[in-house]
Amino acid sequence: MEWISKSNILIVGLGLIGGSYARALKHLGYHIFAIDAKQSSIDYALQNDIIDGGFSYVDEDCVSSADAVIFSLYPGVFKTWIRENQRLFRPGAMLTDVTGVKSSVVYDIQAMLRPDVEYIPAHPMAGREVYGVENSDGQIFKNANYIVTPTDKNTPEAVEWCKCLGRLLGCRRISVLTPEEHDEMIGFVSQLTHCIAIALMTCNDNRHLVDYTGDSFRDLTRISRINDEMWSELFLCNKDALLRQMDLFADEFAVLRALLEADDREGLREKMRLSTERRAYFD
């Protein structure tokens, strides 16, 4: 499919990821427009040639002229935006997103959406512990994983279109999961890891730790600098899956603690060997 035929791209939500989409796609020659509630974000993006035009309100002409719309919004805001503004989409427009949870979002949006536009959900597995369009980077997707989460409401053409978008961004591996499979996976590889980082930073209030720590603590807690508004919503939207993953981690941590308490060196070594073996998959 020639994705280049979709020349006018609207990005709704110009934060770190939305801004990075804008940079990457504008670099490839697409006409990029943006809508963001913060006029300062629009101004910055215009001044730094990240977008071709932008608005801090829903401009009807801008929305109706878009061939493709990429949503980079919190889940609740995303659903509200679609409900209030979908009348503006041009017939045949393709919609996608970057939302970090799917089951609580995808079905609601597809159920309310006009039949002459198609929403194909996706999630680029890329991010940083900083926020805002000021920190956006078109290279953030290079070699990243990219997940498409279609339902039975999606056409094969839309799935291929969305895969092509991931390839254009520079993502290395394109995967297709159901929304439920995505949420179970993301509960483990992303949300649980953020929970662990938060717990590490909140279980000890020694302000002098910064004077003593090495790379291991810094690496483990990098993601604890967290956007509390966004991540609390993501956790709650994926509550059941995240609780399951937290229970699995708590059980495994309890086993490790019991081995230590029992002076079971061989048991500890076996856990370490298994950990090393599984981590090698990522190398």
Structure description:
The structure is a single chain. With 283 residues, the chain is of the alpha/beta class. The chain is built from 11 helices and 9 strands. The strands form 2 sheets. The chain has a 6-stranded parallel beta sheet with strand order 3-2-1-4-5-6. Helix 4 links the parallel strand 4 and strand 5 (94-97). Residues 1-5 have low confidence and may be disordered.
Classification by helices and strands: alpha/beta
Report, as a whole number of angstroms, the end-to-end distance.
33 Å
Number of helices: 11
Element string (H = helix, E = strand)? EHEHEHEHEHEEEHEHHHHH
How large is the radius of gyration?
A: 21 Å
Mass-distribution shape = globular
Q: Strand order of the main beta sheet, please?
A: 3-2-1-4-5-6
Count of individual beta strands? 9
State the low-pLDDT regions, or none: 1-5
Strand content: 5-15%
Summarize it.
This protein is of the alpha/beta class.
Element layout with pairings:
Elements: E1 8-12, H1 16-27, E2 31-35, H2 39-47, E3 53-55, H3 60-64, E4 68-71, H4 75-85, E5 94-97, H5 103-112, E6 118-119, E7 122-125, E8 145-148, H6 156-169, E9 173-176, H7 179-202, H8 215-221, H9 228-237, H10 239-261, H11 265-279
Parallel strand pairs: 1-2, 1-4, 2-3, 4-5, 5-6, 8-9
Antiparallel strand pairs: 7-8
Helix pairs in contact: 4-5, 7-10
